[in-house]
Write a structure and sequence with these properties.
Radius of gyration of chain A: 23 Å
Number of helices of chain B: 9
Strand content of chain A: under 5%
Oligomer: heterodimer
CATH architecture of chain A: Orthogonal Bundle
Order of helices and strands of chain B: HEEEHEEEHHHEHEHEEHHEEEEEEEEEE
Strand order of the largest sheet of chain B: 6-7-8-3-9-10
Low-confidence stretches of chain A: none
Distance between the termini of chain B: 33 Å
Number of domains of chain B: 2
Number of domains of chain A: 1
Largest sheet of chain B: 6 strands, mixed
CATH superfamily of the largest domain in chain B: P-loop containing nucleotide triphosphate hydrolases
Structural class of chain A: mainly alpha
CATH architecture of the largest domain in chain B: 3-Layer(aba) Sandwich
Distance between the termini of chain A: 24 Å
Low-confidence stretches of chain B: 1-18
CATH topology of the largest domain in chain B: Rossmann fold
Shape of chain B: elongated
Strand content of chain B: 25-35%
């Protein structure tokens, strides 16, 4: 198609208009929330009558949010790292060996994609009563590992399938033991897949709410749970301010990731 | 129990060489994938320093055989010896084999120098020695100064040189080459073939070369193992597989050959007479042994061994009709219809001596096979 020169066409104008409308529609909630965040009044009203930054100050100073943020970081770091280790191991096993229960195992590992988050939360909650493990960090981290594992597994598995097996064969013919092949050839070449898997897991884990609600307690509540608890008590623009911070920080992180690693590489968009 | 000579797989000529311990020896190696037999009892002895080619169409089992020797696959039967040591159960990384793949399989995350040094590092050789040998290997493949490049910054030919250097620097017991030239363009391929052959001879490294390209096999090898459908059909020097093919498959796969329908006149152990129309030609007796006089046979004729004769020349000839004429630069290919003597048009290759404008479609010509290197096999059903 690229051999056809682009010509001016009445439909092109309609296309531009359509894209603008769709983009506007997608952006609308974020825009409304952002404007609301600057409302001086202690109500979630739109459009605001007067403007102020005091809700930003409050959201950054609010104790539950501060704690939720750090809790979330702890949970995310543990959960995505554990999921990466487990997922990589399983992906390597699934890729390298064929065994009788292979497809069953594959299905099981990818099943959290079809099981609702609240089911996992509820299931772990019931189990915790049986095991007399209270709600708290270990249970939250466990729930998150289960939830993000399929994404990590998938990411690493696809990278493995794109890896040329002859590289490992060449390394082994050059005298490298299987372990040496893994650490000098396989894993270094999997780094983009591992990073993208970890990043997906981290984003999912940090934003996870439903399952976390069931298994967290006051001490281990993450930021989304803290936000939920806040909105049940107050209806001021603090949450809107927090949302703006959320968006800005995420955009900043992704920009940095793009700058240092190349986002295409991390998200596996780029084939090379 | 069959011995190697009984199967006809070992050339008498190689018997004198086989007093030396073979560099690679396969004793009845078999490989199955599910119900399919990829390799059926392969027997092979490769002499130290030899350049042996596994030649056959895709799916013939040549790459399976290579992978079995390298240790990437486990044999389902038979034994493999490298340098006199039984290695059938030895993992790939302990076999001390150098391998060059079709796509070179250079480690993309390492520099050229680190690619070449990889096999030396696994052997725990000290850094100074590694540096010296990497430089030596780079000089061998004429890439001195390319140490710090990454593979993706190299051309196809340069990547292949690095792959070769990486395989040779470990001083392997055997060098395996898996279709290493098929990704190169024609001119580069020819020069790389010469260079590889030159390096191989200089180092005297035993080499097993896998290819489906018969021209490549004929020009480079000391011996060729012709394979098809998981079996080795013939192991012989390039001249012999071309001039004295073991069976119909080898006769038709190596070089061009036309098939003429003939009738067996007489057969002894050494020679047989075959009649094609008014002609009687002599062929080797072995392939026709046991056949009764009068049996239908197929006579294989190389295009350069079919000669045009003048109508008034003495002696019998076959009448043919020119179907097609293809100018090939150095020679002209004539496709002739030989009425009752051949089912398919036969190919006659004439050198530049015959002007290409001499024949037109429909012209009647007279041909006769030159009485050299003719071979006949029992007629195949269907």
């Amino acid at each position: 198609m690229s051999s056809f020169p682009m010509r001016k066409h009445p439909l092109k104008l309609v296309g531009i208009l359509l894209v603008t409308v769709i983009l506007g529609f997608v952006m609308l909630p974020a825009v409304v929330v952002t404007i609301t965040a600057f409302n001086d009044k202690a109500i979630l009203a739109f459009p605001p009558q007067s403007y102020s930054l005091r809700w930003f100050a409050r959201s950054l100073a609010y104790d539950d949010f501060r704690k939720g943020f750090w809790n979330g970081l702890i949970v995310t770091a543990w959960a995505s790292t554990l999921a990466l280790a487990i997922g990589t191991g399983f992906a390597l096993a699934l890729h390298r060996y064929s065994f009788s229960l292979k497809s069953t195992l594959e299905g099981l590992l990818l099943s959290p994609l079809v099981i609702p988050h609240f089911t996992i939360g509820l299931g772990l909650l019931i189990l915790s009563a049986q095991l007399t493990v209270g709600r708290g960090f270990p249970l939250v981290i466990l729930a998150h590992v289960i939830l993000v594992l399929p994404f990590v597994l998938r990411s690493v598995f696809i990278s493995l399938q794109n890896l040329d097996g002859r590289l490992e064969m060449a390394a082994s013919s050059l005298g490298a033991s299987p372990g040496r092949v893994l650490f000098t050839v396989t894993l270094p070449l999997l780094v983009p897949g591992l990073v993208s898997g970890w990043l997906f897991a981290a984003i999912l884990s940090f934003n996870e709410f439903t399952a976390t609600l069931f298994v967290s307690n006051q001490a281990a509540q993450t930021l989304p749970v803290a936000m939920y608890n806040y909105v049940r008590e107050y209806a001021d623009p603090t949450l809107a301010a927090l949302s703006v911070i959320y968006i800005v920080v995420t955009a900043l992180l992704l920009t940095l990731a793009n700058l240092f690693f190349g986002l295409g590489k991390i998200l596996n968009v780029d084939a090379h | 129990m069959l011995t190697l000579t009984d199967t006809g797989l070992v050339e008498p000529a190689s018997q004198s060489l086989s007093t030396a311990r073979p560099a690679v020896q396969l004793d009845g190696v078999t490989k199955r994938f599910g119900n399919a037999t990829a390799l059926h009892e392969a027997w092979l002895k490769i002499v130290p320093g030899e350049f042996m080619t596994l030649l056959g169409p895709s799916g013939c089992g040549k790459t399976t055989l290579l992978n079995l020797i390298a240790g990437f696959l486990d044999a389902d039967g038979g034994e493999i010896f490298i340098d006199g040591t039984l290695v059938t159960e030895t993992p790939a990384h302990q076999r001390e084999i150098g391998i060059v793949f079709q796509n070179y399989a250079l480690f993309p995350h390492m520099t050229v120098a680190n690619n070449i040094a990889y096999g030396l590092k696994t052997r725990g050789i000290e850094a100074g020695e590694i540096r010296r040998r990497v430089e030596e290997a780079l000089a061998l493949v004429k890439l001195t100064g390319f140490d710090d490049r990454k593979p993706r910054q190299l051309s196809g030919g340069q990547q292949q040189r690095v792959a070769l250097a990486r395989a040779l620097v470990i001083r392997p017991k055997v060098l395996l080459l898996d279709e290493p030239f098929s990704a190169l363009d024609k001119n580069l391929r020819a020069s790389m073939q010469l260079e590889l052959k030159e390096i191989q001879q200089r180092l005297g490294v035993t080499t097993i070369f896998v290819t489906h390209d018969q021209a490549e096999a004929l020009s480079m090898s000391e011996r060729i193992a012709v394979m098809s459908a998981g079996r080795i059909h013939q192991i012989a020097g390039p001249q012999d597989v071309y001039r004295r093919p073991q069976d119909r498959f080898v006769a038709s796969f190596i070089g061009d050959a036309s098939v003429l329908s003939g009738r067996l006149v007489a057969v002894t152990e050494t020679a047989a007479q075959v009649a094609v129309g008014p002609l009687t030609v002599e062929v080797p007796g072995a392939p026709l042994a046991g056949l009764a006089a009068g049996a239908d046979v197929d006579l294989f004729v190389r295009p350069e061994h079919l000669v045009l004769v003048d109508q008034d020349a003495t002696g019998p000839a076959l009448n043919g009709i020119v179907k097609n004429q293809v100018f090939q630069g150095g020679h002209v290919d004539l496709y002739l219809e030989l009425a009752d003597h051949a089912a398919e048009p036969v190919l006659l290759r004439s050198s530049g001596a015959h002007s290409s404008s001499k024949f037109r479609s429909g012209d009647i010509v007279h041909v006769r096979p030159a009485s050299m290197d003719l071979i006949a096999f029992p007629k195949q059903d269907g």
